[in-house]
Design brief:
By secondary structure, this protein is α+β, with helices and mostly antiparallel strands. The protein contains 12 helices and 12 strands. Strands 6-5-7-3-1-4-9-10 form an 8-stranded mixed beta sheet, with helices on both faces. The longest helix is centred in the N-terminal third of the chain and has 12 residues, at 15-26.
């Protein structure tokens, strides 16, 4: 019988405790009335710098890691001293994490306030980890995304201010999220409620690796579009994206699996790529 690790909370005076207290004391707001859910969107078919499938690595380590630890990112990979991510954390948390080990730094996710099924920030991946509710107590938030150098932060009991900011901005759907910073470790068995996958990974090695993790596995409705839809909106991401969509599509259809394997397999027929992925 397995024993679930006890919930982790930062010790008084630790970098994580000081960072959370800093945001709590610096920014105002009230609690919100809707249910809160933290998610971490990512691409479950990616490989690590060592060439291992990311889900295999997470299964071996038992933890979800930051880009400072993993050397991977679903956005900008800049987790080096003096680089963009390091400098942003220095500014946001007043240098508290400057001398810390990589494992001590925050991990990034989003508040899934829209609850549309695709996670809080699907621009960073078609699948996501849904964290357990006890993780909210050691999470800070900001809006907009840290890439834009936000000035507004809060802790979970003061979320109302950020919610009003998002609603007043009425952002693009890809930017419609409140960024979350989870302070301390994320143990898959203890802290993750479920891994929610895009259904395109059913019957592949991604499903096998996900099934081996010590958390529930679920499927959402799936991300899929067509070239025709993208062609109708050339100004959304530019005409170059229309060209790319045409080159990647399979009979005019696009989903996360098609996009990945058309890219790494040199535009092989999708049926061949899907068969190879399931057998790997």
């Amino acid at each position: 019988m397995s024993i679930t690790p006890r919930n982790w909370m930062p010790s008084i005076g630790s970098p994580q405790d000081r960072a959370i207290r800093l945001i709590h004391e610096k920014f105002d707001g009230e609690e919100v009335s809707f249910n809160l859910c933290l998610t971490i969107n990512f691409h479950p078919d990616r490989t690590t710098p060592n060439g291992l499938p990311i889900l295999e690595t997470i299964g071996r380590d038992g933890h979800v890691k930051s880009q400072f630890e993993s050397g991977m990112s679903n956005g900008s990979l800049s987790a080096y001293e003096g680089d963009a991510r390091w400098e942003w954390e220095q500014k946001a948390f007043s240098g508290i994490y400057d001398g810390c080990k990589a494992v001590e730094r925050p991990k990034y996710g989003a508040l899934d306030r829209r609850m549309t099924g695709g996670g809080g920030s699907p621009r960073f991946g078609s699948s996501y980890f849904r964290l357990k509710s006890h993780m909210l107590g050691r999470t800070t938030f900001c809006y907009p995304d840290s890439f834009f150098g936000p000035k507004d932060f809060c802790v979970v009991k003061k979320l109302s201010h950020l919610v009003r900011l998002v609603d007043s901005d009425d952002p693009d759907l890809l930017d419609d999220y409140i960024e979350a910073h989870i302070h301390g470790p994320i143990n898959v068995e203890r802290d993750v409620d479920a891994l929610v996958l895009d259904p395109v990974y059913q019957g592949t090695s991604v499903e096998d690796l996900a099934d081996a993790l010590p958390c529930e596995m679920e499927w959402h409705a799936g991300f899929v579009t067509t070239v025709d839809v993208i062609e109708c909106h050339p100004d959304y991401r530019g005409r170059e994206i229309v060209r790319v969509a045409k080159s990647l599509s399979n009979d005019g259809r696009l989903d996360p699996f098609i996009c990945l394997f058309r890219r790494i397999c040199g535009l092989k027929p999708v049926a061949e790529s899907r068969e190879a992925a399931g057998a790997s």
